[in-house]
Design a protein that fits this description.
69 residues, two-stranded antiparallel ribbon, mainly beta
Amino acid sequence: MSAAVKSLGVLATTVHVLDPTERTPVVLLTGEHVTDPAVAEQITNPRCWEGEQPPTQPGKPSARKAKPA
């Protein structure tokens, strides 16, 4: 019996990313559930995610720099 894989988010649009192990181009389609944190990390545009909320990983700081106020 396989363990359930938790989805990090659902895509609102088609995206192009690189496979994290093989470094080959991969196309993910609208509605797909992203389960790999290394793939989710490559999708930086919030509008690509349903609800426009990119997945966050607990305990991992954001790689993006905050804009000055």
